[in-house]
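Researcher: We're teaching a course module on how sequence relates to structure. For the next exercise, students receive a sequence and then see the predicted structure as tokens, so they can try to spot secondary structure elements on their own. Here is the exercise chain.
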Amino acid sequence: MISLGLPHEIDEIIALTKRCGKHMRDHGIDQWDEEYPDRGNIENDLKTKTLFAYRDGTEIRGIVVLNEAQDDEYAEINWLTDSSSRNLVVHRLAVDPVFQGQGIAQKLMDHAEKYAGEQNYDSIRLDTFSQNHRNQRFYANRGYKNLGSVYLKYKKEHPYICYEILINK
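Model: And here is the predicted structure for the students to work with:
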């Protein structure tokens, strides 16, 4: 089941993101370090009701954050939609490493796409680390268009690839 994350779940969510970050680093993907995402990020996601959690019973197995916040560097991309459009942005998609490969990320993105349609967004935008080839295949297989890359201010060593898919078009 997917529903909003709850404030009392913050420690469980942070532990999940830390496990994900370690798993990526253990596999040579320096996307999330020990500092990101931090407690402040997750607290804000919960406070603004933008963090959705995939649960099996009461156990959180994955999360995704859906909002309209775009990094300043997104202005460098020639997006499929123009500046007057409504764009939902995916942040912090994470599945507990123990449960990866079970379709949870697919379900979280199904939820994001359904939510975007219900809320009348024109598109979904996101970025993924250029060294995370698994994520790149994941989004390409879902029909997201690779629109180029940007160097995000907080991670300058490797670029992030920007993707977009049209909704309700």
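Model: If you want an answer key for the exercise: The longest strand covers residues 155-166. The domain at 2-166 is CATH 3.40.630.30 (Aminopeptidase).
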